[in-house]
Automatic annotation (TrEMBL):
Belongs to the ABC transporter superfamily. This is ABC transporter ATP-binding protein. It is a peripheral membrane protein. NCBIfam families: oligo_HPY (TIGR01727). SUPFAM superfamilies: P-loop containing nucleoside triphosphate hydrolases (SSF52540). It comes from Tianweitania populi.
Amino acid sequence: KPDLAAKIALKLKLAKPAPVVHALDDVSLTIRSGEVVGLVGESGCGKSTLGRVIAGITSPTEGDVLWKGVKQDAMSASQRRDFGLATQMIFQNPMAALNPRMTVEELIWEAPKTHRLARSGERNTYVDKYLTLAGFNPETKKRYPHQFSGGQRQRVNIARALAVQPKFLVCDESVAALDVSIQAQVINLFMELRDKLDLTYLFVSHDLGVVEHISDRVAIMYLGRIVEEAPVDEIFRRPNHPYTKALLAEIPRIEPGKHRFKPVKGELPSPLNPPSGCHFHPRCPFAMERCRAEVPLKQEVAPGHLSACHLNDA
Ligand code: SF4
Ligand code: MG
């Protein structure tokens, strides 16, 4: 189903903070329709930025985001609107996105009204539909955000995102701030909605347990580059890249959602001044002379399994 593929090949420079940062460096990631792609990496590696670029919130200074085969900067006004509506983002802090002075009903109706996705006479049934999809009793619609728990607020955000009829959800640490038991509920809701509404997900997380549970494919990011990409079982059973291996070695894996990986030994270098060659070389136990000089290219090490490491040339 390539129709919905969001294909990204970009270089991004961020103007803030003051110095120019190559937050993303020649990232290329293809997300197929109906897939859940987990994007993993230590904080500061650029995964949130990549999520925002894919969702159309941040624009790359170089490179392209393609939606249904059309480059973002070549889109007509109506294509831009469709892309904006079709890709929605669910953030980590469920309260931040909710205006505290609006009822749940107003919050959910806001965007569909603006974009004329339904007539005003349909307001009630429309709002009820999305509240129900997000697991609420429609009677809750007269309540305000502060009258809900953290998990419920996140479900209000989900109902709001769904109400513009998206195809693609970018979840940036969407369950990270919630209690573990609530995390499981929200993750199950995401999975249920995927089947009911044919959704595609990019699931940005530093929690390998959650990613293993939810993803079809996983991309591992290190300092602005995707260093490994594979079906979820491949990543967890046959990791290829030394960075991925280090991440996996650091987590005691018992239950999904329970464990966050500890940082890999050594500091994550500053993205302002990333190491030459393979960015991982200062922390890699297998680093060779070549690793300092030459950027390793992604190559296929098994069907659908890409890894960027010079060891694969040996
Ligand atoms: Fe380690 Fe070299 Fe492979 Fe980078 S390219 S992960 S430094 S062996
Ligand atoms: Mg982040």
